[in-house]
UniProtKB/TrEMBL annotation:
It comes from Chelatococcus reniformis. Pfam families: DUF2867 (PF11066). This is DUF2867 domain-containing protein. InterPro entries: DUF2867.
Length: 180
Protein backbone atom coordinates (compact mmCIF):
# COMPACT_ATOMS: atom_id res chain seq x y z
CA UNK A 1 0.00 0.00 0.00
CA UNK A 2 1.03 3.57 -0.63
CA UNK A 3 2.09 5.44 2.49
CA UNK A 4 0.32 8.74 3.10
CA UNK A 5 3.58 10.68 2.92
CA UNK A 6 4.35 9.29 -0.56
CA UNK A 7 3.16 11.23 -3.61
CA UNK A 8 0.33 9.57 -5.50
CA UNK A 9 1.35 8.38 -8.94
CA UNK A 10 -0.92 9.62 -11.71
CA UNK A 11 -2.04 7.97 -14.91
CA UNK A 12 -1.06 9.90 -18.00
CA UNK A 13 -1.74 9.57 -21.71
CA UNK A 14 1.33 8.49 -23.70
CA UNK A 15 2.03 7.82 -27.38
CA UNK A 16 1.32 4.19 -28.25
CA UNK A 17 4.66 2.45 -27.68
CA UNK A 18 6.40 1.15 -30.77
CA UNK A 19 7.93 -1.71 -28.76
CA UNK A 20 4.48 -3.21 -28.10
CA UNK A 21 3.53 -6.38 -29.94
CA UNK A 22 0.36 -4.47 -30.90
CA UNK A 23 2.34 -1.85 -32.87
CA UNK A 24 1.71 -3.52 -36.27
CA UNK A 25 -2.04 -3.03 -35.61
CA UNK A 26 -1.81 0.73 -34.96
CA UNK A 27 -1.80 1.89 -38.58
CA UNK A 28 -5.37 1.39 -39.72
CA UNK A 29 -7.05 1.08 -36.34
CA UNK A 30 -10.29 2.87 -35.48
CA UNK A 31 -8.99 3.40 -31.94
CA UNK A 32 -5.46 3.35 -30.57
CA UNK A 33 -4.62 4.75 -27.16
CA UNK A 34 -2.11 4.24 -24.39
CA UNK A 35 -1.98 5.28 -20.75
CA UNK A 36 0.95 4.85 -18.37
CA UNK A 37 1.73 4.98 -14.68
CA UNK A 38 5.07 4.74 -12.92
CA UNK A 39 5.84 1.63 -10.93
CA UNK A 40 7.54 1.80 -7.53
CA UNK A 41 11.09 0.40 -7.34
CA UNK A 42 10.02 -2.78 -5.54
CA UNK A 43 7.09 -3.63 -7.85
CA UNK A 44 7.24 -7.10 -9.34
CA UNK A 45 8.39 -7.52 -12.92
CA UNK A 46 5.97 -10.47 -13.35
CA UNK A 47 3.79 -9.20 -16.19
CA UNK A 48 0.90 -11.52 -15.40
CA UNK A 49 0.76 -10.33 -11.78
CA UNK A 50 0.82 -6.72 -12.97
CA UNK A 51 -1.88 -7.36 -15.59
CA UNK A 52 -4.08 -9.09 -13.01
CA UNK A 53 -3.63 -6.12 -10.66
CA UNK A 54 -5.00 -3.85 -13.41
CA UNK A 55 -7.71 -6.04 -14.98
CA UNK A 56 -9.02 -8.31 -12.19
CA UNK A 57 -10.58 -5.84 -9.77
CA UNK A 58 -13.10 -3.71 -11.66
CA UNK A 59 -15.11 -1.30 -9.53
CA UNK A 60 -18.83 -1.83 -9.01
CA UNK A 61 -19.72 0.99 -11.44
CA UNK A 62 -17.77 -0.77 -14.18
CA UNK A 63 -19.55 -4.06 -13.53
CA UNK A 64 -22.81 -2.10 -13.91
CA UNK A 65 -21.68 -0.61 -17.23
CA UNK A 66 -20.68 -4.07 -18.45
CA UNK A 67 -24.14 -5.34 -17.52
CA UNK A 68 -25.75 -2.61 -19.62
CA UNK A 69 -23.30 -3.29 -22.47
CA UNK A 70 -23.98 -7.03 -22.37
CA UNK A 71 -27.77 -6.63 -22.30
CA UNK A 72 -27.78 -4.10 -25.14
CA UNK A 73 -25.15 -5.63 -27.41
CA UNK A 74 -26.14 -9.22 -26.66
CA UNK A 75 -29.60 -8.44 -28.03
CA UNK A 76 -27.87 -7.41 -31.28
CA UNK A 77 -26.00 -10.71 -31.53
CA UNK A 78 -22.68 -9.42 -30.19
CA UNK A 79 -20.79 -11.64 -27.71
CA UNK A 80 -21.38 -10.79 -24.07
CA UNK A 81 -18.56 -10.80 -21.53
CA UNK A 82 -19.91 -14.10 -20.13
CA UNK A 83 -19.92 -15.66 -23.58
CA UNK A 84 -16.36 -14.47 -24.22
CA UNK A 85 -15.22 -15.97 -20.92
CA UNK A 86 -17.00 -19.30 -21.52
CA UNK A 87 -15.57 -19.55 -25.03
CA UNK A 88 -12.05 -18.92 -23.71
CA UNK A 89 -12.48 -21.63 -21.06
CA UNK A 90 -13.79 -24.13 -23.66
CA UNK A 91 -10.75 -23.37 -25.83
CA UNK A 92 -8.41 -23.82 -22.86
CA UNK A 93 -7.18 -20.22 -23.00
CA UNK A 94 -5.90 -18.49 -19.90
CA UNK A 95 -8.08 -15.59 -18.78
CA UNK A 96 -7.90 -12.44 -16.73
CA UNK A 97 -11.45 -11.69 -15.63
CA UNK A 98 -13.39 -12.53 -18.82
CA UNK A 99 -10.56 -11.45 -21.16
CA UNK A 100 -8.85 -14.29 -23.06
CA UNK A 101 -5.06 -14.07 -22.84
CA UNK A 102 -3.74 -14.13 -26.40
CA UNK A 103 -0.03 -13.64 -25.75
CA UNK A 104 2.26 -13.55 -22.74
CA UNK A 105 5.86 -12.37 -22.99
CA UNK A 106 8.28 -11.37 -20.24
CA UNK A 107 7.29 -7.70 -20.46
CA UNK A 108 3.87 -7.71 -22.17
CA UNK A 109 0.55 -9.50 -21.85
CA UNK A 110 -2.10 -9.18 -24.58
CA UNK A 111 -5.81 -9.92 -24.17
CA UNK A 112 -8.53 -9.56 -26.77
CA UNK A 113 -11.41 -10.89 -28.78
CA UNK A 114 -12.66 -10.88 -32.35
CA UNK A 115 -16.36 -10.45 -33.08
CA UNK A 116 -18.50 -9.66 -36.10
CA UNK A 117 -18.65 -5.93 -35.29
CA UNK A 118 -15.05 -5.31 -34.19
CA UNK A 119 -11.79 -6.84 -33.03
CA UNK A 120 -10.09 -5.49 -29.93
CA UNK A 121 -6.73 -6.02 -28.35
CA UNK A 122 -5.52 -4.67 -25.03
CA UNK A 123 -1.98 -4.91 -23.80
CA UNK A 124 -0.29 -4.40 -20.47
CA UNK A 125 3.35 -3.54 -21.19
CA UNK A 126 6.05 -3.13 -18.55
CA UNK A 127 8.74 -0.67 -19.56
CA UNK A 128 11.92 -1.15 -17.49
CA UNK A 129 13.85 1.64 -15.81
CA UNK A 130 15.66 3.75 -18.41
CA UNK A 131 18.21 6.49 -17.95
CA UNK A 132 17.17 7.12 -14.37
CA UNK A 133 13.45 7.09 -15.20
CA UNK A 134 11.47 4.58 -13.11
CA UNK A 135 9.80 1.53 -14.62
CA UNK A 136 6.28 2.12 -15.83
CA UNK A 137 3.23 0.14 -16.82
CA UNK A 138 1.49 1.03 -20.07
CA UNK A 139 -2.07 -0.03 -20.97
CA UNK A 140 -2.59 -0.04 -24.74
CA UNK A 141 -5.87 -0.54 -26.61
CA UNK A 142 -6.36 -1.17 -30.33
CA UNK A 143 -9.77 -1.56 -32.00
CA UNK A 144 -10.58 -2.39 -35.63
CA UNK A 145 -14.24 -1.98 -36.62
CA UNK A 146 -15.78 -4.19 -39.31
CA UNK A 147 -19.10 -2.49 -39.96
CA UNK A 148 -21.50 0.28 -38.98
CA UNK A 149 -22.47 -1.51 -35.75
CA UNK A 150 -18.81 -1.62 -34.72
CA UNK A 151 -18.31 2.08 -35.43
CA UNK A 152 -21.52 3.00 -33.55
CA UNK A 153 -20.51 0.81 -30.62
CA UNK A 154 -17.03 2.34 -30.51
CA UNK A 155 -18.38 5.90 -30.68
CA UNK A 156 -20.73 5.09 -27.78
CA UNK A 157 -18.19 3.47 -25.48
CA UNK A 158 -15.05 5.48 -26.27
CA UNK A 159 -15.58 8.16 -23.56
CA UNK A 160 -16.24 5.39 -21.00
CA UNK A 161 -13.29 3.36 -22.27
CA UNK A 162 -10.82 6.14 -21.47
CA UNK A 163 -12.21 6.46 -17.93
CA UNK A 164 -12.18 2.69 -17.43
CA UNK A 165 -8.54 2.29 -18.46
CA UNK A 166 -7.39 5.27 -16.41
CA UNK A 167 -9.43 4.12 -13.41
CA UNK A 168 -8.14 0.54 -13.55
CA UNK A 169 -4.51 1.69 -13.65
CA UNK A 170 -5.06 4.21 -10.86
CA UNK A 171 -6.95 1.72 -8.66
CA UNK A 172 -4.14 -0.83 -9.05
CA UNK A 173 -1.54 1.76 -8.04
CA UNK A 174 -3.65 2.97 -5.08
CA UNK A 175 -4.16 -0.63 -3.86
CA UNK A 176 -0.42 -1.24 -4.12
CA UNK A 177 1.43 -3.18 -6.80
CA UNK A 178 2.53 -6.77 -6.20
CA UNK A 179 6.11 -6.65 -4.92
CA UNK A 180 9.23 -8.65 -5.77
Amino acid sequence: MRRLDQPRERVRSVPPPSESKLAPLFGRADLVDAFAIRLPPRATSDIEALARAVLSHPPRWLRGLMGVRDATMGALGVKTSSQIGRQARRQGKAQIDFFPVLMRLDDELVVGEDDRHLDFRASILRRPERGGAPAELVAITVVHCHNRLGRLYLATIEPFHVQVVRSNLQRAADRGWPLT
